[in-house]
Recover the amino acids of this structure.
């Protein structure tokens, strides 16, 4: 039912895409996503998939092609990184506003300037409030699993929203890892066929998409519905995860709690750094320090109350942002966690660390320093500096 | 200042044999000539797109500006319009200028911004390792089109002529004297000077033998004749494998440039204001 392969993150995503075999793919190459485009182009050329594959002239065109195709009723996918996602930005809220379940893979890469091809999360964090669902992955296996599940989540009748799935550029996209790849037939059965509600290709029932609705129209109600659909994605993703566990043996939650049951000190982190941090947690546990970790999977919708519940017994919590916040109250994940704690009436000392910008290395020693800061914070009850930088050159 | 002194310490990362080297050397030589008698090249700005071509900005010791992929042209326009006293030379790629940012190229030509636009046309995305571009031939087997591209190429010369470019030329990366001549003429031309350089990418689309066999210098051609220029530009459609490929200056025409005083092209803000004030006065 599955094969174990030694492949890079990019190839794992391409494998998932091959098994899903979407009707239309519109793409434009950009490092470190390029390998996905090239691998998929090979599958098309070899006749392994029947996808209409459009290597477009720009990302703006690529995502617009996806919008058109998805409105026509096709199952549609794209992938990009960094500036490519930035160039798609104008069209992202069009896809979500039209409730088109396009599934995108974004290989996280820093946004210019200065130009940088390496990993941070500034690309997708900049798109976090465009009405797309966002699912992050620690490694190639998760990228593969999340991408397949994203199709079901996006197309679910209670959701009907575009979804982007992420992994870290180079660290994961270009590193060879052990990945269990499901048989094509198993994946195909799992994703099924897309059933579009009002496809443009249904010539017996003509429809207009995206029309102007005026001041007296339903714009606000429409937006409220969209917010409800995003919220619905929480339960839907858990239901889909249960089904996916049946075919893969791997079940995913909204986030992963690692040794959190009795944790005094916790780190909240996104993507591959979770792997580095888990090693540190294990070492600290051996020394008797009650360290724990939360790794975000579903970032939009944001599992606010669920995260706060998981943190409730902690004495101090560090939130790691791989993106410059550009505000002195910290990075986006930190803001979200702070607001969530406030809303739930939970008052745990919180501290923010900005790390790994433009691919800057994040070492176990950095993570150890974070846990040791947390011990100090818990002891003194004071957060001396709420926003800090890890691994900055002096 | 001589050509050598215009070099930098940046290690060159182009593949050995890449056509970009002769473009670099020709540009350095021409800039060196231009700086003779003048104190320095402080008023020259080199703008680069993103791609192998863009690295030229690292290798020439003048003011330079790295734009983002597709936006070299408008960044160069902005620099020229912001300070019309600057000499602006823009190096872009076929992916950068003809694909990702094509609309800008058409508008820069239409506006006749006084700048030199040099497209390193290797007919492939070099930096991202070999995908088809708008000038790749039909059937091009690139990394995004392994079974062959199903699209015909555009003809950038014909496009620029019909978009209003006032100087249109084609060069070839294996002929440094020919490149120097074109660069000198393009930089001297007041207005939008467009040069498409057939730049050999030895790694992903090595057309060296083909170009060397088929290219020839334009002669008996009147560069002030627009129709003749279009005709010569269409001799080769960037697709056929037997047509001869003319090189040189196809078209040159003097027209008002965008960044001069707008009053010169019929827009007179002071007079308009006075008329408006007179009208409004009737209702006071
Ligand atoms: C918005 C955006 N999309 C994609 C890329 C990735 N990218 C960098 S260079 C390049 C192609 C360059 O091709 P070309 O302009 O022909 O330059 P060459 O490398 O051939 O000189 C691409 C697609 C990018 N940097 N930004
Ligand atoms: S890939 Fe092609 S264009 Fe780029 S440096 Fe090498 S030969 Fe030159
Ligand atoms: Mg090119």
């Amino acid at each position: 039912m599955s094969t174990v392969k030694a492949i890079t993150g990019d190839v794992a995503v391409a494998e998932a895409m091959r098994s899903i075999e979407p009707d239309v793919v519109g793409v434009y190459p950009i490092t470190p996503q390029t390998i996905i485009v090239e691998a998929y182009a090979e599958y098309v050329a070899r006749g392994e998939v029947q996808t209409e594959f459009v290597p477009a002239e720009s990302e703006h065109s690529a995502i617009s092609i996806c919008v058109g195709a998805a409105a026509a009723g096709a199952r549609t996918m794209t992938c990009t990184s960094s500036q490519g996602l930035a160039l798609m930005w104008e069209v992202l809220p069009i896809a979500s506003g039209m409730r088109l379940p396009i599934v995108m893979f974004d290989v996280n890469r820093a946004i210019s300037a200065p130009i940088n091809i390496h990993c941070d999360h500034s690309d997708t964090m900049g798109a976090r409030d465009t009405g797309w669902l966002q699912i992050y992955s620690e490694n190639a296996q998760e990228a593969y699993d999340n991408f397949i599940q994203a199709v079901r989540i996006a197309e679910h009748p209670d959701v009907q929203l575009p979804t982007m799935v992420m992994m870290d550029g180079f660290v994961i996209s270009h590193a060879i890892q052990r990945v269990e790849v499901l048989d094509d037939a198993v994946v195909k059965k799992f994703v099924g066929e897309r059933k579009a509600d009002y496809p443009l290709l249904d010539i017996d029932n003509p429809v207009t998409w995206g029309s102007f609705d005026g001041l007296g129209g339903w714009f606000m109600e429409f937006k409220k519905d969209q917010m409800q659909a995003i919220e619905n994605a929480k339960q839907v993703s858990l239901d889909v995860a249960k089904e996916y566990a049946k075919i893969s043996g791997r079940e995913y939650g909204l986030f992963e709690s690692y040794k959190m049951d009795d944790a005094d000190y916790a780190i909240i982190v996104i993507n591959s750094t979770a792997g580095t941090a888990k090693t540190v947690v294990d070492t600290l546990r051996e020394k008797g320090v009650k360290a724990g970790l939360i790794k975000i999977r579903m970032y939009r919708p944001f599992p606010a109350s669920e995260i706060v519940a998981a943190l409730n017994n902690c004495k101090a919590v560090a939130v790691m942002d791989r993106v410059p916040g550009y505000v002195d109250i910290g990075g986006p994940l930190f803001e979200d966690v702070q607001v969530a704690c406030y809303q739930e009436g939970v008052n745990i000392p919180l501290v923010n660390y900005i790390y790994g910008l433009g691919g800057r290395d994040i070492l176990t020693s950095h993570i150890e320093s974070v846990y040791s800061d947390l011990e100090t914070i818990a002891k003194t009850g004071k957060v001396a500096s709420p926003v800090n930088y890890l691994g900055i050159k002096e | 200042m001589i050509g050598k002194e215009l070099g930098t310490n940046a290690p060159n990362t182009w593949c050995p044999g890449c056509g970009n080297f002769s473009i670099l050397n020709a540009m350095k030589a021409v800039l060196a000539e231009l700086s003779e008698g003048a104190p320095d090249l402080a008023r020259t700005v080199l703008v680069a797109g993103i791609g192998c071509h863009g690295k030229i900005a690292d290798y020439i010791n003048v003011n330079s500006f790295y734009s983002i992929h597709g936006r070299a042209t408008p960044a160069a326009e902005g620099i020229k319009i912001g300070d019309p006293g600057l000499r602006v030379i823009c190096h872009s790629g076929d992916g950068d200028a003809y694909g990702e940012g094509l609309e800008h190229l058409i508008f820069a030509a239409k506006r006749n911004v006084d700048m030199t636009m040099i497209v390193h046309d290797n007919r492939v995305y070099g930096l991202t390792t070999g995908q088809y571009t708008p000038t790749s031939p039909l059937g091009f087997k690139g990394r995004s089109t392994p079974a062959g591209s199903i699209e015909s190429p555009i003809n950038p010369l014909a496009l620029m002529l019909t978009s209003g470019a006032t100087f249109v030329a084609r060069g070839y990366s294996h002929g440094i004297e020919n490149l120097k001549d074109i660069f000198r003429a393009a930089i001297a031309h007041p207005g939008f000077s467009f040069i498409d350089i057939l730049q050999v990418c030895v790694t992903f689309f090595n057309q060296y033998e083909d170009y060397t066999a088929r290219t020839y210098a334009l002669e008996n051609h009147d560069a002030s004749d627009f129709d003749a220029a279009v005709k010569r530009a269409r001799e080769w459609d960037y697709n056929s494998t037997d047509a001869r490929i003319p090189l040189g200056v196809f078209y040159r025409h003097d027209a008002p440039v965008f960044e001069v005083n707008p009053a010169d092209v019929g827009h007179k803000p002071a007079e308009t204001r006075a008329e408006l004030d007179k009208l409004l006065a009737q209702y006071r």
